[in-house]
Design brief:
Length: about 200
């Protein structure tokens, strides 16, 4: 089991947003894209038992970590992790069918991955979400070209200036995909949760 300190710090805060945003009273299907170590999906699955979780990951080492967490915390609402390259069309996402998920979750991927991954995330979410389904993304963003605080300025420099600007990011993806922003939540450590709803059918 791999352990990421950031995942331990933010999993409770993200769970709080999920609790406020999804129906906890009926069975749901969720896809986590770029699940990382597996800490998030296990934490969410323990708290939201009505949701069947499908973890996924591109990196083979972290895929093994997800499976170690599944073995260590056995639950019937977490499926085996699948290998998923989000930059590819959804037809290559391990057999996932169109309109099969109520929720797609993506944590701390957008700012550390190539733009093709962000484009694939929104394009793919628009395909695999059911109508009115939700996409939740979490991470640091610039706002109108401004990055705060200094820790995020330094982080952006270390990433070769790859923090997505929220304004241009939303304009681009809201105008070209089915997922429309319905809410954003300021989070601890200068991160944000963005919630999008699929507003049209595939």
């Amino acid at each position: 089991m791999l352990s990421a300190a950031a995942a331990d710090r933010n999993k409770g805060h993200i769970l709080a947003v999920l609790r406020e945003s999804v129906n906890t009273g009926k069975p749901l299907q969720a896809l986590e894209i770029a699940s990382g170590t597996g800490q998030h999906v296990i934490h969410f699955a323990q708290a939201l038992r009505n949701i069947i979780w499908q973890p996924s990951e591109y990196d083979r080492q972290t895929l093994a970590s997800i499976e170690a967490y599944r073995a260590g915390y056995p639950m019937n609402n977490v499926k085996p992790a699948i290998h998923l390259d989000v930059s590819l069309p959804h037809q290559y996402w391990g057999g996932i069918q169109p309109e099969s998920f109520d929720l797609v979750v993506n944590i701390n991927m957008i700012h550390i991955s190539p733009m093709a991954c962000t484009e694939g995330l929104f394009r793919g979410a628009g395909a695999v979400l059911k109508p009115r389904g939700l996409l939740l993304t979490y991470g640091p963003y610039a706002v109108n070209g401004q990055i705060t605080p200094q820790s995020n300025v330094d982080f952006n420099y270390s990433l070769r200036q790859s923090l997505r600007d929220l304004s241009s990011f939303l304009h681009k993806y809201m105008s070209s995909h089915e997922c429309m922003l319905i809410k954003y939540v300021d989070m601890p450590a200068n991160n944000k949760c963005l919630l999008f709803r699929k507003e049209s059918v595939v």
